[in-house]
Automatic annotation (TrEMBL):
Topology in the lipid bilayer: Lipid-anchor
Residues covered by the PBP domain: 32-154, 197-314
Keyword field: Lipoprotein, Palmitate, Phosphate transport, Signal, Transport
Protein location: Cell membrane
Cited function: Part of the ABC transporter complex PstSACB involved in phosphate import.
Xref: Pfam families: PBP_like_2
Protein name stated in the entry: PBP domain-containing protein
SUPFAM superfamilies the UniProt entry points to: Periplasmic binding protein-like II
InterPro entries named among the record's database cross-references: PBP_domain, Phosphate_ABC_transporter
Length: 316
């Protein structure tokens, strides 16, 4: 009898051990969530993306002192993609998958073309442009090419389609065929413009939409060349109209991922042209391994970026 009890006890113990091992193995292959310290990433103070994010989330001037500053939209995506505890913010046009980051919902709404245009996604901002003053391009042909390019990008069926394909949100119902719009530029478009270089500056967030537009337009306009010197929205006005307009970083078209300031620090009254060519969303991003966090509210983001919430497990 004692031998029978010992045998049964051993058998039950073995079964329990096997059962526990089986339960443990069923979790293999699952991606664990992220815990521990939150690493906050931010853009520099000249960034239009930073300004739009801080205003939208309502913490201007209260960013945590522990935030890690990055140099551009692409740098933000790369840095957060390399840090499993990281959180930052980028343009909606960012290649999230390529950079290893996940875009978060804001107040339960996913950023998309539809949610940006209908206003249901609230963290959005304009993509703006401003040019040099009329007569300040070095040649009439270059000035006319700048005018033609901006008309193509923001008003033509073809140009709007390119902007939209590359992440900008536009109202295509107002577009006109380029064949119709281009007639007033026929004289300059028909020339060999390969000796002319158009230089852009300002926001890094606009780079994808602007580069694709320039690449498409150049063959239609005498194969002019272009140089993109994007460093931040704060450099747009100074480099086309301000103190840097004739220096080594001068530009012909400046771009900002926010509205131009009306406090006198960004006077665009002398520009040949200025305006908005599309809308973009600012999206909070986390490392792709952070699978537990898919949506954050305004209050939660504010708490994280001001340093009130310090650990992922403390998000409420």
């Amino acid at each position: 009898m004692n031998m029978w009890k010992k045998t049964m006890t051993a058998t039950v113990a073995c079964l329990m051990t096997f059962s526990l091992a089986a339960c443990g193995s069923s979790d293999e292959g699952k991606t664990a969530g992220v815990s521990g310290d939150i690493k906050v990433y931010t853009r520099d103070s000249s960034s239009g993306t930073r300004e739009a994010f801080e205003k939208g989330v309502d913490f201007e001037g209260s960013l945590t002192k522990n935030a890690i500053e990055v140099s551009s939209n692409d740098d933000m995506a790369a840095k957060v993609g390399a840090d499993k505890n990281g959180i930052g913010y980028t343009s909606l046009s960012t290649d999230f998958e390529k950079n290893g980051v996940s875009a978060l919902q804001y107040e339960g709404v996913t950023a998309s073309s539809e949610s940006v245009l209908d206003g249901s996604y609230k963290l959005q901002r304009p993509f703006m442009y401003v040019t040099r003053a009329a007569g300040d391009y070095g040649s009439d042909d270059k000035e006319q090419l700048v005018q033609a390019f901006l008309d193509f990008m923001q008003n033509s069926t073809e140009g709007m389609a390119i902007v939209k394909k590359n992440g900008g949100e536009v109202d295509e119902s107002k577009a006109k065929p380029w064949d119709e719009l281009s007639k007033k530029y026929e004289a300059v478009l028909g020339k060999d413009n390969s000796a002319i270089t158009i230089t852009t500056c300002g926001s890094t967030s606009v780079e994808k939409t602007v580069k694709a537009s320039l690449e498409a337009f150049s063959p239609m306009a005498g194969n002019f060349k272009f140089t993109m010197n994007q460093s931040g929205s704060g450099d747009a006005v100074p480099r086309v109209l301000g103190k840097e307009k004739d220096g080594p970083n001068k530009g012909d078209i400046g771009f900002a991922s926010r509205a131009f300031k009306e406090d006198g620090s960004e006077d665009i009254s002398k520009a040949m042209e200025s305006g908005q060519y599309c809308i973009d969303a600012v999206v909070a991003v986390v490392n792709k391994e952070n699978t537990d966090v898919t949506s954050l509210t305004q209050a939660q983001l504010k708490s994280i970026f001001t340093g009130e919430t310090l650990k992922w497990e403390d998000i409420k």
